[in-house]
TrEMBL record, chain A:
F-type ATPases have 2 components, CF(1) - the catalytic core - and CF(0) - the membrane proton channel. CF(1) has five subunits: alpha(3), beta(3), gamma(1), delta(1), epsilon(1). CF(0) has three main subunits: a, b and c. This is ATP synthase gamma chain. Belongs to the ATPase gamma chain family. GO terms for molecular function: ATP binding; proton-transporting ATP synthase activity, rotational mechanism. It comes from Agromyces fucosus. The gene is atpG.
UniProtKB/TrEMBL annotation, chain B:
Pfam families: ATP-synt_DE_N. The keyword Magnesium does not apply. Residues 4-83 form the ATP synthase F1 complex delta/epsilon subunit N-terminal domain. GO terms for cellular component: plasma membrane; proton-transporting ATP synthase complex. InterPro entries: ATP_synth_F1_dsu/esu, ATP_synth_F1_dsu/esu_N, ATPsynth_dsu/esu_N. Keywords: ATP synthesis, CF(1), Ion transport, Membrane, Transport. One of its GO terms (molecular function) is proton-transporting ATP synthase activity, rotational mechanism. Belongs to the ATPase epsilon chain family. The keyword Transport applies. PANTHER family: ATP SYNTHASE DELTA/EPSILON CHAIN, ATP SYNTHASE EPSILON CHAIN, CHLOROPLASTIC. It is a peripheral membrane protein. Its main location: membrane. This is F0F1 ATP synthase subunit epsilon.
Length: 302, 86
């Protein structure tokens, strides 16, 4: 067998093996998307209940809360970046990190110092590689986020927010994560988590039918304490939601990336098969012409 | 008699929902019982049991901590980061 033919056959083999792996990963993430989506849906009653309660308190009491008041000067800001633990998900992690970098630029241009809270091994790797400092990180468990981690992140973020800026606290907190739109699209989302912007429903009760008018609630013990209890829970639920969205988006991104990898492998296999056939044919042609030439030489020598 | 529409919700799922005649929960100020027609209320829960009495007289008990209770127009929501039926 000719050397060239052997090389082509090797390449076909390796493309086939790669295809088997990418195909398996594609199927795995396809099944995981569904689970992740179901978890997003299952957590919905909780977040709607909390959002409703928070807006109810906010619209019927004029309680100024430390989490909702805009500080006069914002010197330090924190960004919470939600990436995944594993790669092989196309632009999933890079687009979140790019958004975070853009946000950093913006905040720095406003004269704010930026601190980072990182979720997911990929963002930690990104920061370590560039020798950049970050406040805290959480790795492991981004494929299947649990509420305890969300609580831990919320506690850390709130703690940093409530600390004085002079002691290394921050005055505002942004989150950057991938939102699951569909199996095809995942969009990076940048929102400011703290201070909270409470949309008061009494501003335009009739104008929008979406905002329901809340009844006059009785608060127990009082509006202030209720708000005190609710707001941290609200933050937790927002962070938990971001984690769930991010994990669903990660699985969708992996599926998409692995699908195109399998397609590419398919194309490689066809191309190399053609080339290998070509090489084999030319080898045969050469052998025939050698034989014919040899026979010719023998007969003409006689 | 009107009945209450109760749902018990935890962070990752809806634990239970259905009709009930009475809900008893522990708020930070003490136990509170809610019957149909209760005024709208928002209360912070103290950790402990939430007892729901069904129309048939059966009782359902759920453990809920770190959450709140909202009552509005005969809809009762028990919302806690961790809640489970006993």
């Amino acid at each position: 067998m000719g050397a060239q033919l052997r090389v082509y056959r090797q390449k076909i083999k390796s493309a086939q093996t790669t295809k088997k792996i990418t195909r398996a990963m594609e199927l795995i993430s396809a099944s995981r998307i569904q689970k992740a989506q179901a978890r997003v849906a299952a957590s919905e009653p909780y977040s709607t209940a909390i959002t409703r309660a928070v807006s109810a308190v906010a619209s019927y009491s004029n309680v100024a809360h430390v989490l909702t008041t805009e500080p006069e000067r914002i010197d330090r800001a924190a960004i919470v970046i939600f990436t995944s633990d594993r790669g092989l998900a196309g632009a999933f992690n890079s687009q979140v990190l790019r958004e975070a970098e853009e946000l950093t630029e913006l905040l720095k241009s406003q004269g704010k110092a930026v601190e980072y809270f990182l979720v997911g091994r990929k963002s930690v790797g990104y920061f370590n590689f560039r020798h950049r400092a970050f406040e805290r990180s959480w790795i492991g468990g981004t494929d299947n986020p649990d509420f305890d981690t969300a609580k831990e992140i919320a506690d850390a973020v709130l703690e940093a927010f409530l600390r004085d800026a002079a002691d290394g606290g921050v005055d505002e907190i942004h989150i950057v994560y991938n939102r699951f739109v569909s199996r095809i699209t995942q969009v990076p989302v940048v929102t400011r988590l703290l201070p909270l912007e409470v949309v008061e429903s009494d501003e335009a009760p009739e104008a929008s039918t979406k905002h329901e008018v809340f009844p006059l609630y009785e608060f127990e013990p009082d509006a202030e304490t209720v708000l005190d209890g609710l707001l941290p829970v609200y933050i937790e639920s927002r962070i938990y939601n971001a984690m769930l969205q991010s994990s669903a988006a990660k699985h969708a991104a992996t599926q998409k990336a692995m699908k195109s990898a399998s397609d590419n492998a398919d194309k490689l296999i066809t191309d190399y098969t053609r080339l290998a056939n070509n090489a084999r044919q030319s080898e045969i042609t050469q052998q025939i012409s050698e034989i014919v030439g040899g026979a010719d030489a023998l007969s003409s020598a006689k | 008699m009107a009945s209450l529409n109760v749902s018990v919700v935890s962070a990752d799922q809806q634990v239970w929902s259905g009709e009930a005649t009475m809900v008893v929960a522990r708020t930070v100020e003490g136990e509170i019982g809610i019957l149909p027609g209760h005024e709208p209320m928002l209360a912070i829960l103290a950790g402990g049991e939430v007892r729901v009495t069904l129309p048939g007289g059966e009782k359902i008990t759920a453990n809920a901590d770190d959450g709140f209770l909202s009552v509005q127009a005969n809809a009762v929501q028990v919302v806690a980061s961790r809640a489970e039926l006993v």
